[in-house]
């Protein structure tokens, strides 16, 4: 299993009146982590879009564990949890700089054609990318590939 890491400097604008990172900002950080994972393995979201393909989120869950605050750094760890014919599930951990767990999350995505929004397989669009996901995804029962 391959895990990508993205460091985030927490900005004042990302916090609420209590000085805690506002919950919706985690969604943005997950996207940054997912984008970094894709770039780390040699691909880009922009490349998909150039082919007329989008990757909408079909499901998302976040479990908040410990608050992050302005002035701290967060680390977003991202991996491919599952990858099938039409769906890819990404797993995430958001950590404090010292490694303390701040949140866990999963997001599910389906590739669709931009013009029709009909689902399409990554294997059909980019067989090499599909094979890379198969190679790096989390093995069943948490066993490392």
TrEMBL record:
Coiled-coil features, chain-numbered ranges: none
InterPro entries, per the entry: 4-hydroxybenzoyl-CoA_TE, HotDog_dom_sf, YbgC/YbaW
Keywords tagged on the record: Hydrolase
Protein name: Uncharacterized protein
GO molecular function, one term: fatty acyl-CoA hydrolase activity
Protein origin, superkingdom: Bacteria
Pfam families: 4HBT_2
Similarity comment: Belongs to the 4-hydroxybenzoyl-CoA thioesterase family.
